[in-house]
């Protein structure tokens, strides 16, 4: 296990290049299972979740080659259709393999993904949609999902909520279903657009990503040699920008897509940061450290304020003058990390899905414990903005979504070390 030891007070200044997006590479890696050829992915982030996904693909019989941010997946011959339970449980989002594996093999056994720190995270919409396409699903109650489909048939599906994972699973299953599938109320996140771009390189006719209505014309056999570059990680970019804002720093992030984090940049500007957009993929932020509260931030599906930036924003607002209100509309339990922020002296009260943050002049170092990925990132921001030396345990959560965070932050002036315990 390791801890991050952070001595706050340094202004974060410098340049960061944004890596590929975790939440884009994971569904694209699942989509490589559809292909009886070799898929080449570039700009893949080096994260624990990506490693786990590659272990799962390997266990299914795929040939894997990884050189830095380049990954080759040869799925020409699959030897299994069961996802090893130990691996599936390491990563909740292993459920996005379901649609692709069912389409390719006609049968999938996967452990039912449990809930996590931020909510129950059910998969009812995934299963309902796959059943509509002709899948037979058993075993929901005893922890192992057994899904079978002699044949998947395209159909019209209306999602009760624009679920990212459900949209991805349906797109993958529909890619090899007979006929057309229409997904209404589909998620519009940029990662959906990236998955559509990859599926098109596999020869799948798919359109509508980003519009809320996605059409997929299934094809019986997929054999292609696609090369695909993963889009930049908008949440990693937003996280480091929030850290620079919280420390009164000046940060340039390159390789980012401005519109992918437009809602986050809007809030940072309203707090008092100066933001410059150079040619849409270089963003410069200046903060004098004396920022003001936001009357209301409500998380919502893209292009609204992203739930994955909610904890980081609350950490920043802890030091903004005045009272801010943050409402979390996507997950039912995504404020647990605030108990840790309060150890730093943050003044936060949580009622259900609403957090009220009263900005304080000073945060003081403390011993903190990360229990989920983005909550952990929020604790790092709090510690960077606090006086004194804090330590954060549970770094394994942070490593799931941030490449060598301590190296990146040190490169822009943070006093941060990873200490093995
Ligand atoms: C994806 O999770 C992301 N993960 C999450 O990022 C992100 O927070 C989330 O989308 C929302 O943007 C990956 O892409 C790997 P959802 P996902 O299905 O697909 C409910 C991070 O930190 N729901 O859009 O699981 C669900 O409980 C992670 O990188 C159902 O009720 O999210 C939640 O309340 C965290 N039934 C809401 O919908 C279902 O069948 C949104 O979930 C599916 C979802």
Automatic annotation (TrEMBL):
<keyword id="KW-0132">Cell division</keyword>
<feature type="binding site">
    <location>
        <begin position="22"/>
        <end position="23"/>
    </location>
    <ligand>
        <name>phosphoenolpyruvate</name>
    </ligand>
</feature>
<dbReference type="Pfam" id="PF00275">
    <property type="entry name" value="EPSP_synthase"/>
</dbReference>
<comment type="similarity">
    <text>Belongs to the EPSP synthase family. MurA subfamily.</text>
</comment>
<dbReference type="GO" id="GO:0008760">
    <property type="term" value="F:UDP-N-acetylglucosamine 1-carboxyvinyltransferase activity"/>
</dbReference>
<keyword id="KW-0961">Cell wall biogenesis/degradation</keyword>
<feature type="binding site">
    <location>
        <position position="92"/>
    </location>
    <ligand>
        <name>UDP-N-acetyl-alpha-D-glucosamine</name>
    </ligand>
</feature>
<dbReference type="GO" id="GO:0005737">
    <property type="term" value="C:cytoplasm"/>
</dbReference>
<dbReference type="InterPro" id="IPR001986">
    <property type="entry name" value="Enolpyruvate_Tfrase_dom"/>
</dbReference>
<dbReference type="GO" id="GO:0009252">
    <property type="term" value="P:peptidoglycan biosynthetic process"/>
</dbReference>
<keyword id="KW-0808">Transferase</keyword>
<dbReference type="GO" id="GO:0071555">
    <property type="term" value="P:cell wall organization"/>
</dbReference>
<feature type="modified residue" description="2-(S-cysteinyl)pyruvic acid O-phosphothioketal">
    <location>
        <position position="116"/>
    </location>
</feature>
<feature type="domain" description="Enolpyruvate transferase">
    <location>
        <begin position="7"/>
        <end position="409"/>
    </location>
</feature>
<dbReference type="InterPro" id="IPR050068">
    <property type="entry name" value="MurA_subfamily"/>
</dbReference>
<dbReference type="GO" id="GO:0019277">
    <property type="term" value="P:UDP-N-acetylgalactosamine biosynthetic process"/>
</dbReference>
<comment type="function">
    <text>Cell wall formation. Adds enolpyruvyl to UDP-N-acetylglucosamine.</text>
</comment>
<comment type="pathway">
    <text>Cell wall biogenesis; peptidoglycan biosynthesis.</text>
</comment>
<dbReference type="GO" id="GO:0051301">
    <property type="term" value="P:cell division"/>
</dbReference>
<feature type="binding site">
    <location>
        <position position="308"/>
    </location>
    <ligand>
        <name>UDP-N-acetyl-alpha-D-glucosamine</name>
    </ligand>
</feature>
<keyword id="KW-0131">Cell cycle</keyword>
<keyword id="KW-0133">Cell shape</keyword>
<keyword id="KW-0670">Pyruvate</keyword>
<keyword id="KW-0573">Peptidoglycan synthesis</keyword>
<protein>
    <recommendedName>
        <fullName>UDP-N-acetylglucosamine 1-carboxyvinyltransferase</fullName>
        <ecNumber>2.5.1.7</ecNumber>
    </recommendedName>
</protein>
<dbReference type="InterPro" id="IPR036968">
    <property type="entry name" value="Enolpyruvate_Tfrase_sf"/>
</dbReference>
<feature type="binding site">
    <location>
        <position position="330"/>
    </location>
    <ligand>
        <name>UDP-N-acetyl-alpha-D-glucosamine</name>
    </ligand>
</feature>
<feature type="active site" description="Proton donor">
    <location>
        <position position="116"/>
    </location>
</feature>
<dbReference type="InterPro" id="IPR013792">
    <property type="entry name" value="RNA3'P_cycl/enolpyr_Trfase_a/b"/>
</dbReference>
<dbReference type="InterPro" id="IPR005750">
    <property type="entry name" value="UDP_GlcNAc_COvinyl_MurA"/>
</dbReference>
<keyword id="KW-0963">Cytoplasm</keyword>
<dbReference type="GO" id="GO:0008360">
    <property type="term" value="P:regulation of cell shape"/>
</dbReference>
């Amino acid at each position: 296990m390791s801890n991050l030891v952070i001595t706050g007070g340094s202004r974060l200044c410098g340049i960061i290049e944004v890596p590929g997006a975790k939440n884009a590479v994971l569904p694209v890696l699942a989509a490589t299972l559809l292909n009886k050829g070799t898929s080449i992915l570039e700009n893949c982030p080096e994260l624990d979740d990506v490693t786990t996904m590659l272990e799962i693909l390997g266990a299914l019989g795929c040939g894997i080659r990884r050189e830095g941010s380049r990954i080759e997946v040869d799925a020409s011959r699959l030897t299994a259709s069961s996802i090893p339970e130990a691996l599936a449980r390491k990563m909740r989002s292993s459920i996005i393999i379901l649609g692709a594996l069912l389409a390719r093999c006609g049968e999938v056994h996967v452990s039912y993904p449990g809930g996590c720190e931020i909510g129950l995270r059910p998969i009812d919409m995934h299963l309902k949609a796959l059943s509509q396409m002709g899948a037979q699903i058993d075993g929901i109650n005893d922890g192992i999902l057994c899904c079978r489909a002699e044949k998947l048939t395209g159909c019209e599906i209306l999602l009760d909520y624009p679920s990212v994972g459900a949209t991805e699973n349906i797109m993958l299953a529909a890619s090899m279903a007979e006929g057309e599938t229409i997904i209404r109320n589909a998620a519009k996140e940029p990662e959906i657009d990236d998955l559509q771009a990859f599926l098109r390189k596999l020869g799948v006719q798919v359109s509508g990503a980003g519009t809320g209505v996605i059409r997929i014309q299934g094809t019986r056999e997929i054999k292609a040699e696609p090369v695909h570059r993963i889009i930049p990680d908008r949440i990693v970019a937003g996280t480091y920008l929030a850290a620079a804002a919280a420390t009164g720093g000046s940060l340039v992030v390159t390789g980012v897509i401005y519109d992918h984090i437009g809602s986050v940049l809007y809030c940072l500007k309203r707090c008092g940061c100066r933001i410059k957009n150079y040619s849409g993929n270089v963003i410069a932020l200046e903060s004098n450290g004396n920022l003001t509260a936001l009357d209301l931030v409500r998380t919502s599906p893209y292009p609204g304020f992203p739930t994955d930036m909610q904890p980081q924003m609350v950490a920043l607002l802890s030091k903004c003058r005045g009272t801010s209100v943050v409402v979390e509309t996507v997950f039912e339990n995504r404020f647990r990390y605030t108990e840790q922020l309060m150890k730093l002296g943050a003044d936060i009260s949580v009622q259900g899905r609403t957090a009220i943050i009263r900005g304080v002049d000073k945060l003081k170092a403390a011993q903190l414990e990360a229990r989920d990925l983005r909550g952990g990132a929020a604790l790092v921001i709090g510690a960077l903005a606090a006086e004194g030396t804090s330590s954060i345990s549970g770094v394994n959560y942070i490593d799931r979504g941030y490449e060598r965070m301590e190296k990146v932050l040190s490169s822009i002036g943070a006093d941060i070390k990873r200490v093995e315990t």
